[in-house]
UniProtKB/TrEMBL annotation:
EC number(s) recorded for this UniProt protein: 2.7.11.1
CDD domains cross-referenced by the UniProt entry: UBA_SNRK
Pfam families: Pkinase (PF00069)
Name of the protein: non-specific serine/threonine protein kinase
Binding, ATP: K31
Protein kinase domain location: 2-259
Lineage: Eukaryota, Choanoflagellata, Craspedida, Salpingoecidae, Monosiga
Record-stated family: Belongs to the protein kinase superfamily.
Source organism of the structure: Monosiga brevicollis (Choanoflagellate)
GO molecular function annotation: ATP binding; protein serine/threonine kinase activity
SUPFAM superfamilies, sorted: Protein kinase-like (PK-like)
Length: 333
């Protein structure tokens, strides 16, 4: 099914490896979680993350292809962000020019808006969780995707969250003050920190110690360099606002003058009843023929798609479909 290659990363309970799908030859990331080391609440949290990733299918969110659950391990087959993460890029190369930052920031904002439309707050937005799809940087078709929904949570409009989470430098004042907070508005603050770093090459709030950093964040004390355009300054200043209800909305972000004229090829987010990407009948039949030639039953493939499965059959179909049409529209489950 998959040929494993080098290790990409390691956490407390998991290892991420690069692997190649045998039939499609596409590279994927495989997150291997050792369930024997997890407490019951940690297992519940893990299952929640998987449920969220199944729900959020968007061109600018890292895609979950397959879930394989055994007695001791959980394997998540994920889209591979081959170009590294945004933090790594900015640390190595410094700030971006604004036209490029506009394109990439809009992609991130579109992904977050889609999550919020489906009542999911990410709660850990930061450059480390924004990954480049390929190593082809600084090109018009450059794509960035949001990942890591480990701290995400469902929300009801107007309902406050209480669990403080996220990374210090990207956390909003109300989270640091341990106040009940609005998840989507906390995400908007984090978008402001990400944008600031993209156009300046540094964080707006980073002091020699955590206490000083927290003080700066709570007091919202930051300075935008003079080389940043007035329109970009305006957007940052409307994102990084102490009072959550005064922060700019995602609809206003996407309509802001700084992003005016920035167009990304975002497919329609129309739901599809049969769980299949929108490809032609000819492409669909060609994929089924390829899978049949590999010994996979087309009837079972069709059933896996109709049942919205996250098994090997469905993942193989979708990987082959991406080769037929790399930008096929979003699916909502």
């Amino acid at each position: 099914m998959y040929n494993f290659e080098e290790e990409l990363g390691r956490g407390h309970f998991s290892i991420v490896k690069k692997a190649q799908h045998v039939l499609s030859k596409d590279m994927v990331a495989v997150k291997i979680i050792d369930k024997t080391t997890l407490q019951d609440d940690e297992l519940d949290h893990l299952h929640h993350e998987v449920r969220v990733m199944k729900l959020i299918r968007h061109p600018h969110v890292i895609r979950l292809y397959q879930v394989c659950n055994t007695n001791t391990k959980l394997y998540l087959i994920l889209e591979l962000g081959e170009g590294g993460d945004l933090y790594e890029y900015l640390t190595k190369n410094g700030k971006m020019d604004e036209p490029r930052a506009q394109r990439l920031f809009r992609q991130i904002a579109e992904a977050v808006a889609f999550c919020h439309q489906h009542h999911i707050a990410h709660r850990d937005l930061k450059p480390e969780n924004c990954v480049f799809a390929t190593r082809k940087h600084e090109e018009e078709e450059e794509t960035i995707k949001v990942t890591d929904f480990g701290l995400s949570n469902d929300f009801k409009p107007g309902e406050k969250m209480k669990t403080a989470c996220g990374s210090l430098c990207y956390s909003c004042p109300e989270v640091l003050l341990q106040e009940p907070y609005d998840g989507p508005l906390a995400d908007i603050w984090s978008l402001g920190v990400i944008l600031f770093m993209m156009v300046t090459g540094r964080l707006p709030f980073q002091e020699p110690n955590d206490y000083q950093t927290i003080t700066k964040i709570v007091d919202v004390k930051f300075e935008i360099p003079a080389f940043v355009s007035n329109e970009c300054k305006d957007l940052i200043s409307r994102l990084l606002v102490k009072e959550p209800s005064d922060r700019i909305s995602l609809a206003e972000i996407l309509a802001h003058p700084w992003l005016e004229g920035v167009v990304i090829n975002l497919p329609s987010a129309t739901p599809y009843a049969n769980g299949r990407p929108v490809i032609s009948d000819e492409q669909h039949e060609r994929i089924l023929a390829t899978m049949s030639a590999a010994g996979l039953d087309p009837t079972k493939v069709t059933a896996a798609l109709d049942n919205r499965s996250y098994d090997y059959l469905a993942s193989t179909y979708f990987l082959l479909a991406e080769r037929e049409r790399p930008s096929f529209p979003v699916l909502i489950f």
